[in-house]
Design a protein that fits this description.
Chain A: Pfam families: TctA. The structure holds two protein chains of two kinds. Chain A is mainly alpha-helical. Chain A is 76% helix and 1% strand. By secondary structure, chain B is an alpha/beta fold. In chain B, strand 1, helix 2 and strand 2 form a beta-alpha-beta unit. Classes of the chains: A mainly alpha, B alpha/beta.
Chain lengths: 501, 327
């Protein structure tokens, strides 16, 4: 308890408040610009914060981390372009909502559930850091493989009704995921001698192309055809009414649950949590058919999940010294320089620090939520622009953002290539979701399966309780819908039969 | 009325364009003045790093850049050119002007990638200095039955392939370290490459593998926390961070391998410019801020002269070629 008091007391310092505000402003901004991810912003800021006191520096870095997860929803909902990978699943329902004139409620609800998710994650960080971190350590290659297989079963769910086309898109995603160096032997595959491809398809460039550029091209084509696409001129209601607030509860609870588990597992972050929880909420929903067409539940689930991963990631990072996600990998670098070596020793040497960090994150969440709610009115003005100006602005942001990831013109080419691919897919009704899933999860599945096979010929796949549980869950996820639809078909047939009699 | 309005707009627009243009020419003038000096360095130096922002190599570049700025009085701008396991940035450096205004951190990969199908040859670069050394180590989970390196080797001897050792990635320096140890001891290990050093160490902490070969920067803090037991360091002499841990050589296995970072430029930089850079880097590498940064990561700040670094990188490259052939 004393540690908690010392931890909180350490923050009663106006400069820390200032650092928080700076971090939240920066984070919201970089989150909202597609391509500039929280990882990059934290990495660049780390260069400046090293000269600050550790707590001041951490206040800047952590609040960028938190606030970026609020900012990135805005382009996902308004222009179908995830601001950071964590909001990939936000585009599934957020953008359809915006097109239907309900952007206001999508933005507000998204900000609210993001805050709920973030706070839930941080509470777990405060109260359960060490036991939960011990659980995370049990995720070896076999368990990781099983988790990823479970993630891959979501392909059907994110297919948007057309399972065959969804699975084709997923297979193409897996193929793209295989580009680069073999995870075990290091041989290059499908790189055609291009050195840039040896570390795989640049992921940020690919998702900006798949979502943002494809949507942009599509709108341009539609308007050239004279179809005058319906611009998002109205944002509709701002505050969810009581019925809508009730509607948010279940998907948010599912999102928080999924986010906490995924966040604790090292090296997987908000993007995967968002997609998994979107699909889980769809399965649990009373109106699953609305998912993908502008369902408020479909916004709440992924947004609460991706923010809930933050507490888990920070926890894994602090307690194990293992980066919980890519932002944390950068943060460890800074912490080491400040003499705060993450790992079990941190809880012995600096027990108050965990409380300070959690308090910083709570304050950042509240600030970011406030900023998100206030700032949204300004977004209206942006949308009243004639569409051709908006297109120009969007394309500049996509270009600059993609280039900035690794100062690479090649990445910009990749962005356009994926934009064209997704445009063709869109015109022929192939969903982009499964492709992204294949691209993210394919390499994780392959690397971990092959590591598991190397270590004990894969024995852990059927002896580790975690792996067995997750694999069974995957099996159920694939088979249950099929069996259920068969049963329903039989019931209908039986019904029809009795009627003819 | 409307024509009047549009004329006003046009005039205002013209004023805006002209003022922006003037502002831009002002900028151009300033950089011209700076560029006319004769003595090196008289303009901004670009300090490339073939890694993303935020990692250890990037921070090495940023810390050194700050010292060089103080030394030279010109801006030293760090530019990240990540991708392709470092090959993208290293190849990019080879194509820049050899005038000393573009330098780079060249990590150990500069002597590795050429043997792994990349178009990279250490001979394409002028090495100016070595900036640090990151010694290797072998560690086991803290509850492992193996108390000494000998016990681990004996187990590998008894059942070839039964001992699994994680490393930072296929063809990485730590993969070679484990290979080298296997060759020196005449035993067969199962090498398990991970996607980076941190997950490889975690796999050992979690007991998923029998051992890990990694830099002491990663294993020493884990030993302090009671998560890993370091069995040996792969250095000539014992390291300050782990004074009680024997070297592999002491234990009878002649394995000395580690990661390092050199500073280099494209080949053909005038010798006096190299000498100026070398002298400045020598001071920068001894500067308290840099020493503290490198030591906080558990590594060793280490200066080697331009001539010695060139020879060292060449020797390392030849050694790695034969190790890679053996792995």
């Amino acid at each position: 308890m004393n540690d908690a008091i010392t931890g909180f007391a350490a923050l009663i310092d106006p400069t820390i408040g200032l650092c928080l505000v700076v971090g939240v402003l920066l984070g919201t901004l970089v989150g909202a610009v597609p391509g500039i991810s929280a990882t990059m912003a934290v990495a660049l800021a780390a260069g400046f914060t090293l000269t600050l006191e550790p707590l001041q520096g951490l206040a800047v870095l952590l609040s960028i981390y938190v606030a970026a997860q609020f900012g990135d929803r805005v382009p996902a909902i308004l222009i179908n372009t995830p601001g950071t990978p964590a909001s990939i699943a936000t585009t599934f329902d957020g953008y359809p909502m915006a097109k239907a004139g309900r952007a206001g409620i999508a933005l507000t609800s998204s900000a609210l559930v993001s805050a709920v998710g973030a706070l839930a994650g941080i509470l777990i960080l405060i109260f359960a850091a060490q036991p939960v971190a011990a659980f995370a350590l049990r995720f070896g290659p076999a368990e990781m493989f099983a988790l990823v297989v479970f993630g891959l079963t979501m392909m059907v769910g994110v297919s948007g009704g057309n399972v065959t086309k969804g699975l084709i898109a997923g297979a193409v995603g897996l193929l793209f995921g295989a580009v680069g160096r073999d995870p075990i032997t290091g041989d290059t595959r499908f790189t055609f001698g291009i050195p840039e491809l040896s570390s795989g398809i640049p992921f940020i460039a690919a998702i900006i192309g798949l979502f943002g550029i494809a949507e942009l091209f599509n709108q341009i084509i539609e308007s050239r055809k004279g179809k005058s696409p319906k611009p998002i001129t109205q944002l509709g209601e701002w505050w969810p009414n009581r019925a809508q607030r009730r509607e948010l509860r279940k998907p948010t609870a599912i999102g928080v649950g999924v986010g906490l588990v995924v966040g604790v597992v090292p090296a997987v972050g908000g993007d995967i949590a968002g997609i998994i929880s979107w699909d889980q909420a769809r399965r649990a929903s009373k109106t699953p058919e609305k998912f993908g067409t502008g369902s408020l539940e479909g916004v709440a689930a992924p947004d609460s999940a991706s923010t809930a991963t933050m507490g888990g990631s920070v926890m894994t990072t602090l307690a194990l010294g293992v980066p919980g996600d890519s932002v944390m990998a950068v943060m460890i670098g800074s912490m080491v320089v400040w003499g705060l070596q993450p790992g079990p020793g941190l809880f012995v040497n600096h027990p108050d620090l965990v409380f300070s960090l959690a308090t910083i994150m709570i304050a950042a969440t509240i600030l970011a939520l406030g900023l998100a709610l206030v700032r949204m009115r300004g977004v209206v003005k942006l949308l009243t622009l004639p569409q051709r100006y908006l297109w120009a602005v969007i394309i500049v942001f996509c270009l600059v953002g993609t280039f900035a990831v690794q100062n690479s013109v090649f990445d910009v080419g990749v962005m356009f290539a994926f934009g064209l691919l997704a445009l063709v897919m869109k015109r022929f009704n192939f969903p982009a979701g499964p492709l992204v899933l294949g691209l993210i999860l394919g390499p994780l599945a392959e690397g971990n399966l092959r590591r598991a096979l190397l270590i004990d010929e894969g024995a852990a796949l059927y002896t580790s309780p975690i792996a067995v549980f997750l694999l069974l869950l995957s099996l159920l996820a694939v088979t249950v819908p099929v069996i259920r639809s068969l049963l329903i078909a039989r019931k209908i047939r039986a019904h029809a039969h009795t009627r003819t009699h | 009325m409307s024509t009047h309005k549009s004329r006003t707009t046009r005039t205002l627009g013209a004023v805006a364009v002209v003022s922006v243009a003037l502002a831009l020419t002002a900028c151009a003038n300033r950089s011209d003045v700076a560029a006319t000096g004769d003595v090196f360095p008289s303009k901004t130096i670009t300090f490339l790093t073939p890694t993303s922002a935020g990692g250890a190599t990037d921070l090495t570049a940023r810390t050194l850049a700050k010292e060089l700025e103080d030394e030279f009085g010109v801006s030293v701008v760090v530019e990240n050119r990540p991708g392709g396991a470092g090959s993208v940035g290293i190849q990019y450096l080879a194509g820049t002007a050899a005038d000393g205004y573009t330098i780079a951190v060249l990590p150990v990969e500069v002597s590795l990638l050429g043997h792994q199908g990349y178009d990279i040859d250490p001979a394409d670069f002028d090495f100016i200095a070595q900036a640090n050394s990151q010694p290797g180590s072998i560690a086991v989970p803290v509850d492992s039955p193996f108390q000494t390196l000998d016990e681990l080797i004996v187990a590998a001897e008894a059942d070839p392939g039964s001992i699994s050792i994680s490393n930072a990635g296929p063809g990485s320096i730590w993969n070679l370290g484990a290979t080298d140890l296997g060759l020196a001891a005449g035993v067969e290990f199962t090498h398990v490459p991970f996607d980076g050093g941190a997950p490889a160490v975690t796999a050992a902490v979690g007991g998923q593998v029998n051992a890990v070969v990694a830099g002491i920067g990663e294993t020493a803090p884990a030993q302090k926390d009671g998560r890993l037991r370091v069995l040996a360091v792969l250095t000539d002499d014992r390291v300050p961070a782990l004074p009680d841990v024997p070297t592999a050589t002491e234990l009878g296995f002649d394995v000395v391998i580690g990661s390092w970072a050199a500073i280099g430029a494209p080949a053909g930089v005038p010798t006096d410019v190299v000498a100026t850079l070398e002298a400045a880097l020598k001071n920068a590498i001894a500067a308290p801020a840099y020493v503290e940064f490198i030591e906080s990561g558990g590594n060793i700040p280490f200066f080697r002269s331009a001539a010695d670094t060139t020879a060292f990188v060449q020797t390392e490259s030849e050694r790695f070629a034969s190790l890679l052939a053996g792995s």
